[in-house]
TrEMBL record:
Pfam families linked: DUF247
Protein name according to UniProt: Uncharacterized protein
Lineage: Eukaryota, Viridiplantae, Streptophyta, Embryophyta, Tracheophyta
Native source species: Rhynchospora pubera
Amino acid sequence: MLENIPKRTIANDPFTISRIPPFIRDNHKDFYEPQMVPIGPYHHNEERFHEMEEHKRHYLHDFLERNSQVNAGAYIDAVKNVMKNARDYYHEPIQLSDNKFVEMLLLDGCFILELILKLGNDKHRSLCWARWDFMSILSDLLLIENQIPFFVLEKLYAVNISNSLDGCKNPVDSDLKSLVVNNLFVKYFGDNLQTSRVQRLFEGPVHHLLHLYHELSLPNSETRKECYIASSHRQKNHRLPLVIPSATRLFELGFVLRKQDSIKIAR
């Protein structure tokens, strides 16, 4: 009997990247599925993204060209070394061969890295994003189903900057986490971030881009403490509700609720 029990249990799974449950996504697929660029295995090889796959290859070429001293094999080996750990990051079994999985991680990882590096140059946006919905691409990078492990990005970036750190214009260029925060999050989603957290960064492990963004969006410990004190004070004085009233209660009070046609990340 015991031999029929799977060795891999949910409690022991290290996965951090999963699909949105059908009962949530069925009526609002556009909110949870990428619109412009697929990242990772869940939306890999979908026909609607054929043109974007070509753009990814151009970005892969540009990324490799940043360090001509490193051949493509070094990047492939770097991904192969973490392939098993990368598979374990996904909730669902990945129906790709090892070679195809490595190829996908390499292409998507280099695309993300080159995009972030290009975002550090304001001139690039006006030249290369005319045909794309720029903010849709950035929003796609923050979808839970559209992630690859952050350590894959770190491995690829480490290979790219090897033998070339002396040429970095800024010391922060050697730290991928700082690069992502400065070139992407602060620049395009800065209003949603906690300044103190951006300055100190997130000291714990980063699972993927969405995880890093989430951690930088959380209030710091002092803010949480202030919120707790304020909440306790309100509770004692019974002046304000501690939770958002139900839709029924809001309707009774005269509020009008309307369905939102689209969701966009605040810039």
